[in-house]
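Quick one: co-fold with 2-acetamido-2-deoxy-beta-D-glucopyranose.
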Amino acid sequence: MTSTCCSRIALIAVTLAAVSAAVSPRAAHGSTPVAAAAACCWCDGDTPDAFRVTVDADGQEHELVFSDEFSQPGRNFSNGADKRWTAIDKSDYTNASPVRYTPEAITTVLDRGAMVLANASDPGSERRVFRPYRTPYSALRIETRRITDKAVAKAVNKTFQGGMLQSWDKFCFTGGVVEVSAKFPMGLGFWPALWLFGNLGRAIHEESNDGLWPYSLEECDPVYEQRPVAKPGKKQRISGCDPAPPSGLHPRMGRGATEIDLVEVGDSWNGQAGWLMQSLQLAPSIPDHFRPKLHDPPIGYTPNPRTGQVAWVPPTHGASTRDTWYRRLRFGGNTSGVPAVLPNAHWYGPKFADSLTAGISPFHDLSERYRTFRLEWREGDGGYLRWLIDGVFIFEIPAAALDKYTVCAQTPDDGAPVCETTPRRKLPSEPMSIVINTALGSWNGGPDATNGHMPGEMLVDFVRVWQSRERTNVGCDPPDYPTRRYIDEHAHLYGTPARPRGYDSCPQIYPHGTRGADGDDAGARAAGARRPLGGALAIGLAAVAAGALVALFGGSAVVRSLLRKRAAARQRPSQYGEVGDPAGASREPMLR
Ligand SMILES: *[C@@H]1O[C@H](CO)[C@@H](O)[C@H](O)[C@H]1NC(C)=O
Ligand SMILES: *[C@@H]1O[C@H](CO)[C@@H](O)[C@H](O)[C@H]1NC(C)=O
Ligand SMILES: *[C@@H]1O[C@H](CO)[C@@H](O)[C@H](O)[C@H]1NC(C)=O
Ligand SMILES: *[C@@H]1O[C@H](CO)[C@@H](O)[C@H](O)[C@H]1NC(C)=O
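Sure, here it is.
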């Protein structure tokens, strides 16, 4: 989901690179129940204990620091109503969108099943029947529909209404593991996305993003510095060359609003052969020389004959090889349940920014079943971004891939080479907020292509974030990447402030030794807030809380749905029960 630019997803070619069976990383969920809802301020008490810990592909354990299971139906996400999320109330003027985002489009429901092809072996016939899930999902629902009231359409200057949920300035985190489970609206035109966005920017508030999206450059390079007198543009607004930046920002440290897309979706008109994309948006971009032409594949990646995974090795540093794109990217996929991955999906980003992407296709059931999208994010110089779908490795960007890129040309007369260099970009280290939305994309036909599939429904079963104990970094104002004072002092860029701000909801927790503006060890100060209770006591309290829930709501549908959800967590991926009677296609939530 690019916030300021055009999209790349229409450009996925049908030709997929040949990739053979991939190796699954060790992305298993840990099962040790640990303390405890009481100690984790952002955690939803309804998260099953089995998900209190997760283990990344390197074997490192991470503890839950945030979750939302969406298990209470009928939730209201209007600004001020929820501590984790704000449902945006604003017309979207990015990407030629025809959508007004409104809180009315978003609530929580019980999702009891999906419309599936009546005859799966005959996708040509589009007849669909309702098929109930074995156990319903309690889920967030974002609905996209035409605005039927002409006066409303005129007032908001848009023809469709839809939803965008943001944790901006409420919950932010730096590094760790994120998982979101979701299913998507059927039909071309819809553009659902689950993404992370640096808190110095705010999605669809373009004044805040100008000159920050999607910069990840900390060092000084005058080429990219936005001069105060220049008109706003694509240069970096908070530059590493500035010795005295405003609002408590650190001197000589470039900042940005980077975008990491857990997933963006493009379904087809009839739900067949849809695709997913996972990506990092990054500025500044590498020299044109290395950028393949639109629709062309990058040169020089080869599948590993043993694993089938695609490793991207060239160019060697400074080598003058055309169209080779980034080095060291790794791609997976093409294994059970996850089809082949198209390296970079043959779209490379707008001129000034690079889109490092895995395109995965074809999927025939994006609107039918939930998939879990996972990002493992180790920030810093030795770090990486690693994407998985249902536990299957898809894509990895190691920090080293973002190193300096140089191309030199020999001048004909005196032989002195002329070089173009993109400096080393930083693997994102900014505090990130979470965004969940459905846009309508003009690039893939827009609303006219949705083939009557209105209203479109995006459903999210859960959002969970874990971090290792040593690197717990929760809050929108980390001492080494502050955002709070900057947002306060530039409030006019950010629209209606989020209420309540994260600072009023939960303690911030930052690693020891992170640099504060005044040089103190803010991490050490904040860390005490992490575990005010002993482990055993916290477990006890969590047990009491769980007991209280059952006692209060007894045999209520909410609790039943929650218990079913826990059972379902162990049963996936076989999500369906028996094929139902199409007349049972009452998709209405039961519990509203
Ligand atoms: C996927 O892997 C299989 C082997 O497991 C291979 O035969 C097939 O060609 C691969 N498909 C693609 C599109 O890479
Ligand atoms: C949600 O909350 C807002 C403000 O608290 C209120 O104005 C609105 O009517 C509520 N919406 C629903 C559907 O209850
Ligand atoms: C389903 O489609 C297949 C392939 O077109 C066809 O052979 C089969 O008879 C169909 N089954 C039913 C029950 O219509
Ligand atoms: C309404 O939208 C159009 C294009 O979508 C835009 O050019 C125009 O400025 C908008 N008007 C207002 C009042 O925002």
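If it helps, Residues 2-38, 517-592 have pLDDT under 50 and may be disordered.
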